[in-house]
């Protein structure tokens, strides 16, 4: 009986190691290519397993990438607390503090292109081709991450209640994904911008656009809070 327990434990340990290797390999691929180019075939080749074996550990390419998205968000949140502490002046007015929060969030996300790329693909791509179980696990993790972000936001902007802070958290992720996608124009769009200076004005800078959007959103929440 003890032998069977040992076998099972060793097998679970091996399974955890395999899952880690698959995740690490996919993470390394994302530093080389956008989410759209990460295929199950190439991932399997780099891991050194048959595709059918990779699918024993993760049910799809999207399941791998959703787990990486959760890891990337948690890593970002760990760093964000320290950055906010340095950048937000507690003696500032609510609007000044809101602008400082917006600037920190925008700059810290811009410094993490892989996270932004994953957020940009989340709703349209990554949440498809997964089972209800994986979908629920990811959403539970996303709620936990949102609660952490709220706990970082409210001490800097105590004027916002929990509900308003949650609204900001949800909006921050949605607009990050949308703006990131719009700031990655196709080759045809780049050529059009280059050929016509009037069109080039349509090109967006990710950090500035995200910062300005978050500033406006936070200003609106503060105005509603004092109404």
Automatic annotation (TrEMBL):
UniProt domain HTH tetR-type: residue ranges: 16-76
Pfam families: TetR_C_34, TetR_N
SUPFAM superfamilies given in the database record: Homeodomain-like
InterPro entries, per the entry: Homeodomain-like_sf, HTH-type_TetR-like_transc_reg, HTH_TetR, TetR_C_34
Keywords for this protein: DNA-binding
GO molecular function terms noted in the UniProt entry: DNA-binding transcription factor activity; transcription cis-regulatory region binding
DNA-binding region extent: 39-58
Keyword Cytoplasm annotated: no
Keyword Zinc: no
Name of the featured protein: TetR family transcriptional regulator
């Amino acid at each position: 009986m003890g032998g069977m327990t040992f076998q099972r434990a060793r097998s679970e340990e091996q399974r955890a190691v395999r899952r880690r290797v698959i995740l690490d390999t996919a993470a390394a691929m994302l530093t080389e290519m956008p989410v759209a180019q990460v295929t199950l075939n190439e991932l399997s080749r780099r891991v050194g397993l048959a595709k059918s074996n990779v699918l024993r550990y993760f049910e799809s390419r999207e399941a791998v990438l959703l787990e990486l998205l959760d890891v990337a968000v948690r890593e970002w949140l760990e760093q964000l607390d320290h950055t906010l502490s340095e950048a937000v002046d507690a003696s500032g007015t609510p609007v000044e503090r809101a602008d400082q929060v917006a600037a920190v969030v925008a700059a810290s996300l811009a410094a993490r292109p892989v996270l932004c790329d994953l957020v940009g693909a989340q709703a349209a791509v990554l949440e498809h081709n997964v089972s209800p179980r994986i979908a629920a696990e990811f959403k539970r993790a996303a709620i936990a991450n949102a609660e952490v972000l709220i706990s970082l936001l409210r001490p800097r902007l105590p004027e916002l209640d929990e509900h308003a802070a949650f609204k900001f958290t949800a909006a921050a992720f949605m607009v990050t994904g949308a703006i990131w996608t719009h700031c990655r124009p196709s080759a045809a769009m780049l050529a059009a911008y280059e050929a016509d200076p009037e069109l080039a004005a349509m090109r967006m800078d990710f950090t500035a656009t995200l910062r300005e959007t978050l500033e406006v959103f936070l200003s609106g929440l503060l105005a509603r809070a004092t109404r």
